[in-house]
């Protein structure tokens, strides 16, 4: 089964543990989720903003994880942004853009992000 590495970067390091706890509590997030230590990217001094490098197995795992991150963002009262990346493809999402989103809007956004990140 192919493995996909999804990197989640958050612009507010103080919220790392909140997002980690949210993902751990979400029953839909694959339990085989492997979290690798944060690493500096080429040209960066450190991995200060990187929250997680996740190794996902299975076709729908990426979409499930994106949906959980989007729901976490929607629940935030303060403005926070998250960048999701697979390889060189990156998508940023902010809590402000999701705060008043309907369920249908959120589902559409999640599908769009998954398509954009997974397309070859």
Description:
With 120 residues, the protein is of the alpha+beta class. The protein is built from four helices and five strands; from the N terminus they run E-H-E-E-H-E-E-H-H. Helix 2 packs across helix 4 (103-118). The mean pLDDT is 83.
| Proportion of strand residues | 25-35%
Rg, rounded, reads 14 Å
- Overall mean pLDDT: 83
Our count of helices gives 4
Counting DSSP E segments of at least 2 residues, the number of strands comes to 5
Proportion of helical residues: 25-40%
> Order of helices and strands, N to C?
EHEEHEEHH
Tell the overall outline. Answer: globular
For the largest sheet, list the strands in their spatial order.
2-3-1-4-5
Termini separation comes to 17 Å
Topology (elements, then pairings):
Blueprint: E1 3-10, H1 16-25, E2 34-36, E3 50-57, H2 61-75, E4 81-86, E5 89-94, H3 95-98, H4 103-118
Antiparallel strand pairs: 1-3, 1-4, 2-3, 4-5
Helix pairs in contact: 2-4
Question: What key phrases describe this protein's structure?
Answer:
alpha+beta; 5 strands; 120 residues; 4 helices; five-stranded antiparallel sheet
